[in-house]
Design a protein that fits this description.
Helix content: 55-70%
Largest sheet: 3 strands, antiparallel
Radius of gyration: 18 Å
Low-confidence stretches: none
Distance between the termini: 46 Å
Number of strands: 3
Strand content: 5-15%
Structural class: mainly alpha
Mean pLDDT: 86
Number of helices: 6
Length: 126
């Protein structure tokens, strides 16, 4: 699309909203949770990243220690988690992956972790 004065003069907020929705949809990560505690996501570029939902107390303490003092975002927490439990290739992918897709994966991962924690404490999924 050529960015011309005419394009800007004719552009509407509705067109911008449609573009935002299209971009957001193209960044979504398709995720699954396996019964053995693996959270896996297929990114729009086809890469599959898997992160365990079964974390040891030691891993959780390292994650909390790394994030507690700095008020890290979910994305930063995901980076730390992948460094702790992932392999070098996963760390490299996370460092170079599309930011919006990583944010989608991180949000979904931590949501799943929270829901599992709630259920294990006796809370309902409903």
């Amino acid at each position: 699309m050529e960015l011309t004065t005419e394009l800007f003069d004719a552009w509407t907020n509705e067109q911008s909203e449609d573009a935002i929705k299209a971009i957001a949809a193209s960044k979504k990560v398709k995720t699954i949770i396996t019964p053995d505690g693996i959270f896996a996501g297929r990114f729009p570029d086809g890469h599959i990243l898997s992160t365990p939902l079964n974390l040891t107390q030691a891993t959780m303490e390292k994650l909390l220690n790394a994030t507690e003092t700095s008020g890290m975002s979910e994305l930063d927490q995901l980076k730390v988690l992948v460094d702790l439990v992932g392999n070098d290739a996963d760390g490299e992918y996370v460092a170079s992956a599309d930011l919006l897709s990583l944010l989608d994966y991180a949000r979904k991962y931590f949501d799943a972790f929270e829901r599992i924690s709630q259920v294990s404490m006796g809370e309902s999924l409903g």
